[in-house]
Amino acid sequence: MFENLSDKIQRAFKNLTGKGKISEENIQEALKEIRLALLEADVNFKVVKKFVNEVKAEALGQEVQEGLDPGQHMVKVVHEKLIDILGGRTPEVKLKGTAPHVIMMVGLQGSGKTTSSGKLARMLTEEGYSPYLVPCDVYRPAAIQQLMTVAEQVNVPVFDSTENPKPMEIAKRSMKEARNAGRDVVIIDTAGRLHIDEALMDELKDLKAFLEPSEILFVADAMTGQDAVQSARAFHEALDITGVVLTKMDGDARGGAALSIKKVTERPIKFIGTGEKLDAFERFHPDRMASRILG
Ligand code: GDP
Q1: ipTM score of the complex?
Q2: Atom 13 in ligand 1: residue holding the nearest Cα
Q3: Of 152, 168, 212, 288, which one is least surrounded by beta carbons within 10 A?
Q4: Is 153 annotated as belonging to a binding site?
Q5: Ligand 1 centroid to 78 CA: how many Å?
Q6: CA atoms of 52 and 36, how far apart (whole Å)
Q7: Which pLDDT tens digits describe the chain residue by residue (295 residues)?
């Protein structure tokens, strides 16, 4: 039978009840289980090492009281540490300066950028904003078309980029349109490539300099594990991202990528994608993700 991490920790502590202080010997087995489970969940090994050491430091020397279950206590320590690493509170979207505020969506092709742009526009509409969608992937006409279709589905106006060959041109004109139409949040769906390249990063840097976005959200496919972590690092180094959208969390990814990306970028995960449908989008809750990793 499948045994989740909580069960494993509790099992490792089964015979410990009422034996005084927790010693290094006592927790060795539990730490091994935690280490393995996190590695299996695709957490970067350096992050795992640090995490396990912190849990160990916290648990060592703690009194195991008569009647209290040390296994449950340890699960609680791990749960709280996970929440702590994942960022504590549920993060807000920051819209600074005067409207229209800009949110730039960046990431590799296939990560779920276009879908997430539409989902975010839908969510913001529900929250009382009037978003405007802007397709900026001039290299893939299909991507522009895709966002236009998505925009129609979520009933949000979209800039027609089909006649504009240059991203900067699109940025300038779409901002003007958004202002004229009284839209207050402009969501820019930028170009993605299969691999990170300098030309792409330079284009994004130029757009950032012109648009002065309130948010640059890096869109990562949770199913790609360590690859998502590497690209998060590269996008963050080039653009100083403000947050992360973790997509495809409806798959069987255990959420290890969330821990690693958070650690590498030190930026909050703000949203998760939980399906192909345009309402399958949620604010990220660190406590829920911690529970998911614990199982
Ligand atoms: P882009 O190239 O980064 O713009 O990626 P797309 O938005 O085109 O998404 C790539 C594929 O992933 C599409 O088939 C989407 O339907 C799918 N997708 C995006 N987000 C999710 C998600 O949260 N869950 C699932 N299951 N599929 C998703």
Answers
A1: 0.99
A2: 112
A3: 212
A4: no
A5: 32
A6: 10
A7: 456 777 877 777 776 655 667 777 778 888 888 888 888 777 888 888 988 999 888 888 777 666 667 777 788 888 888 898 888 777 788 887 788 999 999 999 999 999 999 999 999 999 999 999 999 999 988 999 999 999 999 999 999 998 878 999 999 999 999 999 999 999 999 998 888 889 999 999 999 999 999 999 999 998 887 788 889 999 999 999 999 999 999 887 667 788 889 888 999 999 999 999 999 999 999 998 888 888 7
For the chain, state the CA radius of gyration.
22
Q: What does the alpha-carbon distance between residue 192 and residue 209 come to, in Å, rounded to a whole number?
A: 18
Is 108 annotated to bind a ligand? Reply is yes
Residue 172 burial (C-beta neighbours within 10 Å; 0-12, 13-18, 19+)? middle
The reply to whether ligand 1 has any atom less than 6 angstroms from the CB of 115 is yes
Q: Is the four-CA dihedral 176, 179, 182, 183 of positive or negative sign?
A: positive
